[in-house]
Every structure is written in structure tokens, then in C-alpha cells.
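FAQ: What does a ligand-bound record look like?

Like this one, built around MRU:
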Amino acid sequence: MRSIAWQDGFVIFLDQTKLPLEEVYVETDDENVLAQAIKSLAIRGAPLLGIAAAYGFALSFNKLKAVDARSLTACIERTTNLFTSTRPTATNLFWAVNAMRHVAIDSAGQPAETIQANILSAAKALHAQDEENCRLIGELGAAILPNAASVLTHCNTGSLATGGDGTAQGILKAAWELHTLKHVYIDETRPLLQGSRLTAWELKKLQIPSTLITDSTAAFLLQQGKVNAIIVGADRITLNGDVANKVGTYGLAVLAQYHNVPFYVAAPTSTIDFEMLTGHEIPIEQRSGTEVTSFGGRQVAPEGVDVYSPAFDITPNELITAIITEKGVLRSPYRTAMDDLKKKDLSSMVRRAVFH
Ligand code: MRU
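The answer part, i.e. the structure of the complex:
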């Protein structure tokens, strides 16, 4: 099973906080449980947040009895607030909420069952579209990777984080199948260890040769010439090509430039914030200090120590070799590439949600 699915009025999702030790699936028909799962990172990864929010709308609307204009608006607003207050950085979440709002608004005046059917089929379409996006990103990305690629990646960008095979990881999988990938180095990704807990787990299942490193080993690895490309995902990309991704990404981009190694970002167009000009405007989620002061349930810092723990950082566009989307590979100048992208045939759902 994928990391999330819809089955007979229920959402089933894999609780990622339990990995790699336990594979626990949660089944719920309560949108509040889904929102809480996003907050606790049981469901995580930018594209998956959008898919979960879309199914959250379907759960909310399934409970709707009366469908007069007032109750419809109330349901839209309540569900919007529920999901937009979970995590602030990933565009995909806000994009999906916007898309679902439009489907609900467009359904006004129709019987409850029709509205519910419209919402559910839109959520399923959004999920299916993300799966297809991963496939296209994988294909496009694998085509530009160096031969015998030895790739460093950060955080988790695989099937756990998306509706398909993943973004950056989708490229690794595609390249592995084409025999152009030699090895993957996985940053453990402090403090929540998405690299060691999730990516190492996924790559092992895929039987892709990989080596886990601590985040602070990356520089030494590049100095030794053991990496010929870095690929990461993204949580938000602005019009000038700046990228918010898991904290530590910016450091890797600086390293890539110093060591003359290409630095690629892979993300669907639903990660692009077409209304934000630069990365400076991106809201960065701050995490609790306890995630840093304890490790494996054991306290590893003195009581009361001050902690700064942003979940994401911003990589400036000039450090990015290319942004690989399902609609093509974008290169500098990114502002022009984004304008060209807008003219392309974005799916009607993306267009409606973004350029409303
Ligand atoms: O805090 P997380 O685990 O949700 O952060 C996820 C990342 O930073 C991923 O790299 C990003 O969402 C891309 S997922 C395809």
C-alpha cells in the first residue's frame, strides 16, 4: 500500500513516526485525526500534506447533512482553518486546500450526495495527479543525472512523502532502473531523522545501494570526490527560484558549489508559490527545542538550554543547477522559466487553485 489511501469512506495512512521499527496503519473517518497526524509528522512530506488535506475535505463533507449555502460555507471555512493551521511552510498543503475549496464552491446548490461525490473525486484526482507527477519527475530527472551517478540526498522524498514514487527519490528509482545510478548517500537529517528512519528504510526496500551518513559528514564526502550530484526535494519554491526545504539543504547547496557538483531540486509544480517573489517571504516552521535536547527518549542537553530549531531553510536560486518539475526542467533565470511555466498546460486543478 502507498502511504495514504481512501477506502470506503475512510482514510488509511501509515504512521511515519513509528518507522522504521513498526509499520502501523491508521484508519480514520475523522478529519481532525488527519490534521493531528500532519501536526505530529505521522503524515509528512510536502506533496503528501496536500493529498491528506484533500482527503480531509472529503471526510468533512461526508458528514454534511444539510447543504444550504450557510452550512456549505461553514464546512468549507472550518475545514480550511483546520488544515491551514497544521504546518506553515509547504505550498502543496495550501494549494490543495484552495483546490478543494473551489470544487466545493462550484458544487453549491447541488444535493449533498453530489457535492460529496465531487469532493471525493477531486481528492482522488489530486492524489492520482501527484503519482503521475512523480513518474514524470523521475523520467526527466534520470535523464540529466551524470552516468554512474553517486548521489547525496537529504530528508525523505520518496513514496512516504508523495502520492507516487517520490520526487528526488523518484529520480533515484528511475535512474536505478536505467542502470545509471551507482550509489546513494543519505543524510540522517537531524533532528527528526527522516533520512535514517525513512529514506534508508525505503531505499533498502527498493534494494538501491545506499550508505547512511551523519549530516556533518557530507562536506568530507564531497571533499573526497565521492558524490557527483546532490538531489533534494522542496517544500516551497518562489518565483525567483529560491527553495525552502528541510534544514540542512542550504548547507549542501553551498558545498555543491564549492566542490563543483550539480545541485538539483525536484518538486511538482504544486510546490511552486506563484504569488511569492523571493524566499525571504517564506514562513519557516519552528520546531520544539525538545526535539534537539533529547535523542531516543534520552535528554542530551542541559535542562533549560536555549534552542533554535527551524524545520526548513532557504536555498538561494543562484546555488541551484536546475529545478526538475513534471512540466520540465527549469534553469536560471528562474523568473523567466516560471513565466514560461505559467503559459504551459498546467492541469486545470493547478490552474484553478493557483491563478484564481
Ligand atoms: O518536515 P518534513 O519531514 O515534512 O519535511 C519534508 C521535506 O523537507 C522534504 O524534503 C520535502 O517535503 C519534499 S518531499 C517530496
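Follow-up question: can I read anything off the structure? Yes, for example: Residues 41, 44-47, 90, 155, 157, 161-162, 167, 194, 233-235, 245-246, 311 surround MRU (CB under 6 Å).
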